[in-house]
Known about the structure:
104 residues, mainly alpha, 4 helices
Amino acid sequence: MKYKEDKVLQDIQEYIGKTYGEHYSTTDEGFQVMDILNNLAIDRDFCQANAIKYLMRYGKKQGYNEQDLFKAVHYIVLLISSQRKEQPTTKKRKKNSTTGNGYE
């Protein structure tokens, strides 16, 4: 890939894989806070807010470090995952024949 996206995605995948051993679990099976947030139907708001937080923090708290970007991407991946669980098929955007924009 021209901009080495494949390497970046590999690094992100490795980062996400490592986080599962670092998170607090409430059971031996690995039940996590995200599971509770999902059951309360607030996980998407939580993920979106945290992604924004880490993007805003990038370049400030510990300089321009990839950790903040990896964390933001991880929350975005969790957000996508939650969205897909709720709506397994995504609605494709089509031009409205009447107005020329929006969803049909």
